[in-house]
Amino acid sequence: MVGTHLALRLKETVRGEVYADEPMWRHTSFRIGGPADVLVIPEDTDDLVELLHVVADIQAPFYVIGAGTNLLVRDEGVRGVVIKLAGTLSDLARENGGVVRCGAGAHLPTLCRKAASWGLAGLEFAGGIPGTVGGAVAMNAAAYGSAVCEIVQSATALTYEGEHMALDRDELKPGVKATRVLEEPLILVEVGLALTEDEPAAILGRMQRCQEERSRKQPLSLPSAGCAFKNPTGKGAGRFIDAAGLKGMRVGGAEVSAVHANFIVNTGGATARDVLSLMEKVRDAVYDRFKVALEPEIRVLGG
Ligand SMILES: Cc1cc2nc3c(=O)[nH]c(=O)nc-3n(C[C@H](O)[C@H](O)[C@H](O)COP(=O)(O)OP(=O)(O)OC[C@H]3O[C@@H](n4cnc5c(N)ncnc54)[C@H](O)[C@@H]3O)c2cc1C
User: Does the beta carbon of 257 sit less than 6 angstroms from any atom of ligand 1?
Assistant: First the structure.
């Protein structure tokens, strides 16, 4: 009922899609999560700014997501408004000098393929990272020794009050699976990436090799949110989890993948409670054995 009321109020102003009591499992790669009071997919940046003004007026809490590939939404769902950017703000344009301007909601693997077809290299490592460009920059997504923020030239963000901000790479303050965007927080709406020219076939070949390795080493046939824990300095979290003998450990429908120990997979019907409880058991077991404190990489929303 709260959701319906809030949705009606937002529909008076917002031009994009507005859903009341929307199950969040539909919007996460984990396929887990209770309902958001309201989920909004704004039509464009102006619509997003209008939305920010309305939620401020009515003092509704809100959260920004991309494609939900790094998220665990709690079983109780999310009170307030979830603003989803995947499927909107998705323009991709090639500019002079190897710069590609991307809407924050653009699908990262689609961008990587497009850049390769334009003969622009630098994104090969990211071709298999699901999610949006905005999510990848906000999280400083990384693979095969490269991180997304290394190729960011500029970014446009909104403050939570709806003010525009221009940022360069250093101003994003990239860290390990972290940036200032998550800290403040800000909302990325556009990103400029600086790529270098190369032969499309050579770029595609390198991208394909990364993806083949990913298919061999990751449990891609089951829902997950990627790596559950950040890598402690110098060593993969998965190695500690594996060495502690935790592969295959289960709570309810959640399981430590036998393929990659740092992936928790939803084997069917897993709840957020199952995943959180399993993560706690893994953290405790790794700490007891190696005195290494694992930090979650998955972001938890709601409750
Ligand atoms: C099978 C699989 C493999 C994966 N492999 C990798 C990998 O190799 N490397 C890696 O780093 N990650 C990996 N991931 C995790 C995930 O795909 C990345 O972190 C991805 O970049 C998240 O993008 P998203 O759009 O889904 O963000 P979401 O999961 O929707 O959000 C993640 C965080 O970013 C914030 N956010 C999203 N969009 C914006 C925006 N426009 N402005 C401000 N904040 C925003 C959200 O608030 C949230 O805090 C993998 C996940 C899966 C399921």
Answer: no
Residues 155, 192: Cα–Cα separation, whole Å:
6
On whether the CB atoms of residues 78 and 93 are closer than 8 A, the answer is: no
Find out whether the beta carbon of 167 lies less than 6 Å from any atom of ligand 1: no
Mean local confidence (pLDDT), 281-300: 97
Q: Give the separation between CA 24 and CA 104, rounded to whole angstroms.
A: 20
In the chain, beta strands by DSSP E: 17-23, 35-41, 62-65, 71-73, 78-84, 92-94, 99-103, 120-121, 142-143, 146-147, 152-158, 164-168, 187-194, 196-197, 250-251, 254-256, 264-266, 299-301
Residues 55 and 99 in one domain: no
- Same domain, residue pair 213 and 163: yes
> How many angstroms separate the CA atoms of 114 and 120, rounded?
9
Considering its fold, how many domains does the chain have in total? 3
* Two structure tokens written together for 280: 């706690």
Average pLDDT over residues 235-249: 96
Q: Which domain holds residue 121?
A: 92-217
Q: What is the CATH number of the domain that holds 272?
A: 3.90.78.10
Cβ(143) to ligand 1 under 6 A? yes
Residue where a domain terminates, one of 173, 189, 217: 217
Calculate ∠ Cα 247-67-231, nearest 5°.
40
Residues 102 and 45 placed together within one structural domain of the fold: no
**Domain with 50 in it: what CATH number?**
3.30.43.10
Residue 10 CA to ligand 1 center (angstroms) comes to 27
Residue 230 placed within a domain: no
Residue 245: which pLDDT band, with cuts at 50, 70 and 90? very high
Tell me the one-letter amino acid at 20: A
Tell me: do 152 and 111 sit in the same domain.
Answer: yes
> Residue 232: inside a domain, yes or no?
no
pLDDT at 1 over 80: no
Percent of residues, the chain, with pLDDT higher than 70? 100
pLDDT average, residue stretch 121-125:
98
Does the residue 225 lie in any domain? Answer: no
